[in-house]
Amino acid sequence: MPRFVKLSLFLIVPLLFVLGAAYGLAKIGVVKPQQIVGNSRIAASALKAIGLTQHAAVVAAPAPGLNAPETSGEMKAIQSSRDELAQEKTQWEAQKLAQKQTEDRARIAAESAKPDPKEMARLATVYDQMPADTVTKIFQKLPDDQVIALLRRMDEKQVAQVLGAVVPERAARLTQILSHPPLPDRSTAVASAP
C-alpha cells in the first residue's frame, strides 16, 4: 500500500468521522451549531453549505458596533428611560433631604420652645414677689400653656389676684385648665419609665 493512501487513511478517515459525528449531533439538536462554529465566518458558511442554514443565520450575527436600526432605537429608549429614572431618583432624594431638614428644624424649634422646669419655678418665685397688675400685663403677652405652668407654681394668693385682673374669658379658660391635673411631660415620662 502506497504511503499516500496510508497517510490519508490515518488522517482523513478520523477527521471525516469527527465531522460526521458533529454534523449528526448538530442536526438532532444535541450540539448547537454555535458551539461548533464559534465566531468563524468560514465555519458559518460551511454549516450553511451542509444544510444547517437556519443555524448559520443565527451564528452570522452583525459585527460589534454595527447594530440593526431596531436594536439601536431600543437601546436609545432604554438609555433614555434609565436617565429619566436617575433624574427622578435624584429629585426624590433631594426632596427627602429637604423634608428631613424641615422636620429637624421644627423639632429643634419645638424643643427650644419647651420651658425649662427649673426656670419656670424660678420665674414663678419672681412673679410671686411682683404686684398682681404687673404680672397680669406680662401674662397678657404669654401663651396660655406658659401662663398655666407659671400659675401652677405660684402662691395661691398671687394666683387669685392675677386671675381677678385678667379678662374674664381668659380667666375662665385658665381656671378650667387649672382645675384638671397637669399632663405628664412626655420627655420626663419616657425618661422615668423602667
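Second entry:
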Amino acid sequence: MQLLRYGSPGQEKPGCLDKQGHIRDLSGHVADITPAALHPEQLHQLRQLDIESLPRVPGPVRFGAPWTGGALFIGVGMNYRDHASEIGADIPPEPILFTKWCRPTGANDDIIMPPDSAKTDWEVELGVVIGRTARHIRLEDALDHVAGYCVINDVTERSYQFDRGGTWDKGKGYEGFGPVGPLLVTTDEIADVQNLNLWLDVNGERKQTGNTSNMIFDVAHLIHYISQFTTLSPGDVIATGTPAGVGAGHKPPTFLKNGDTITLGIDGLGEQSQRVLQAAPQ
C-alpha cells in the first residue's frame, strides 16, 4: 500500500495512491497516519480496503510527511562503500549513528538554509519507518518491525557538521532539513529492499546515482544494531545512508545556493522536488 498525507501544513489528511496513481481519501477509515496506524494489524486492515471505491482527491495537492507522530529521526553515516571512498574515509567497522533534531517535512516543501549557510549539501537516502516496537531484537527478526519505506533528503550543513566541533547532529538538525515521502510504501510492495536504485539531481544535473545493494550495513542489520542502544517505536524513522555524489565529495566541493532545485527519487517509492532558499540574516 502506498500511504500519504495531503493538505496544508498542520491540516493534512490521510490518503493513499490507487493503481492509476490517483490519490484516494482514507479519512473515512483512519483519522490520520499515526504510529498506531503503522502497527502490522492496522496496516493489514487498511490493505483490505477496496481502494478504488474510496473518494478520489482532485489535484494538485501538497504532500505532507506521509506519517506523523514519530519520536526518533535517526541517521546512519557513511553507509555506502562508494560514498566512503569519495570522501577518503575507511569502511566503518560498525554503523555510525546520529540524530536529526528536525521534524520530517513534506517531500516538496522548500528547503530554507541557515542565514550563514556556507556548505549546505544534499543526500538521497532510503528511509525505514518502524511499525512495531524493537528493543534488543535478533537480526533475523529485524525486518518484521518495519512498517514501510520512503525517500529522504538528508540535507546537511557541512560547516556545522565538521567545522563547529562536537557531533554531526549540528549539521543535520536544522528545521526543514528532513524532506520525507511523498509516499510511505508498505513492505509487501518492495520485493527486495537491498536492490533499489537511488538518484538525485540539482538544477537538472545528475549528482547521485546508486543502489541499496552498495550499503555497508543492510537494513536488517541497522535495525538490529540500533535496537541494542535504544528502543525503536512505531513512527520512528531511520535514514540509512547515501551513495556517492554528495557536494562535499566533488572536486572541488560544490554546495547548494539560493534558488537551486533538487529532485530525487528511489525505485517504487516516488520522487521529491524542493526549491532551495536562504534565510535572511537575523
